[in-house]
Amino acid sequence: MPRIISDPALDIEPDFTSATFEGLRNRIIGNTQLTHEGAANELATGWQQDRDIRVAAWTLQVNEETRLAAEAAQAERELLDQERALLEQEAEKERRETEKKKPKINDFQAGASVGDTLTHRPSQYTIHKLKSFEYVELWYFSPDGCREAADEAKSAADGTFGFTKVDDFIALKLVAAFKPSRKVIQDHSLDWRQFDMAKNSFLLYMNKDWHDTLTLDNVFDISVFNTTLLKNLAEEVWNKVRLESLTEFQMTMSSQGNSRESQTSSHCNQARSSTRPT
Keywords on this record (predicted)? Predict the structure, then answer.
């Protein structure tokens, strides 16, 4: 059956009693006793029956088209869902690959204490030399070198930059990263104690002990206080205070001694002057 273009229910019944249908009515009447009104009624009945058939066909057609459209929409949604799922799977796969490539750092252990001693940190100049695989004196890793670096960091501005050449470009770099110390001691001039302590710090920074500690899951809990470390820090502070007090006392005594010697010398000179023969 050909596709119905419009809804037959919207069709308007013709006026079969009009002059337009008079010839058709005459052919229907023929030699019968049927009146024009009866012929018009038969035409109306036939048209109504045909309309009912076309309305039923239209309803079937609309239902079929609705079903096909729903199936097509469902198929499109399923295709979109499959494409979205594939994209999400690819994104999840890429995320997992990226996570695998990231360096893994374990969480700290609750209750794990910090070590008994603090490792002195070398200067930026020293770290820069180490990362650049360049020679650097062991003195920079000694306690004296680290203290000198800490004092220098306190007095120098952190935002001081200088120019440096990187390949064929000019770049800015912190001055502290390439400024050597004027107090540096050559390796062959270090005493045994300085050499022994410096090489430990040197090896520590070569091995990147902090990151190794994180990988080995030995990170300490900062909420736990190490009494041994606190005692060592307090002892260091008190030693510094006692040294400063002792130095001040020695300077005072030396000043007083020099004053007494000066007074004694003056008295002796006066005595010698008074005993000279005239």
Answer: Coiled coil
